[in-house]
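This part of the workshop introduces the protein records we will be handling. As an example, a complete record with its sequence and its structure tokens follows.
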Amino acid sequence: MERIVVVGAGHMGSVIVRGLLDGMPQVEVVIVEPSPERRASLDGRAEVVAAYDPRADDLLVLAIPPQAFDSFADGLPRGACAGVTVVSIMAGVRLETLASALGTDTVLRAMPNLASRVGQSMTVLCPGPQVPAEGVDRAKGALSVIGKVLVIQDESLLDAATAVAGSGPALVAYLAQSFTDFARGAGFTPDDALLLTTQVLRGTADVLSEPGVTPQSLYQQASTPNGTTAEGIATLREHRVGESVRTALEATTERARELAG
């Protein structure tokens, strides 16, 4: 039986475990969690252990804070991860660092986001140059239980992926707050204001998923000359909202580079 080991039972680790248990019942799922208190509260469908005992052909998902990685790697016997395929969701820990510390070339980095908790993550996956196609497929299959997976080959793109996909939900939520605040100010109840905003976001995302539709084509189609939408778009342009969003994404990307050293 295929074995997937998730190290770390924090928010993202727990979400991945739940997705694996619900979506891949044929797989043996093991959770590595050193905290006795946290171990006691974990899903009973998975095996829960305090330390990782590597097996050849494991798919190992590292869902620990970056600052905990050195301690984890130092606790493994030298060469213990030979044959293990490692997927790291730790921000800023490069493929080269993973391979060197764990003694294996079959390492991949992944960047999921907070929408994973509802099965709608946009996860960007980057394999190391020595990872075979089978290893990429295994990692992609495991991460597909929490949403969509985009495979890239250029590790440097992960910094931009952190901005667009990783921080994107929070940035969109920040903008959505303006919609909700306006609706409440206009007289809608808080619940109705939130409903208006969330359904607009959900519906817009669905339309943008249709073949041939782009953000630009959608807002241009909706902007009847001298109409209400055209007035709103013109105001956004006047206040350079698009440039502000781009600047925010650039700042987020730069911060990701700084954290990676």
Strands lie at 3-7, 28-32, 47-49, 59-62, 85-88, 107-111, 121-127, 147-151. The mean pLDDT is 95. The two ends are 39 Å apart (CA to CA). DSSP finds eleven helices and eight strands in the chain.
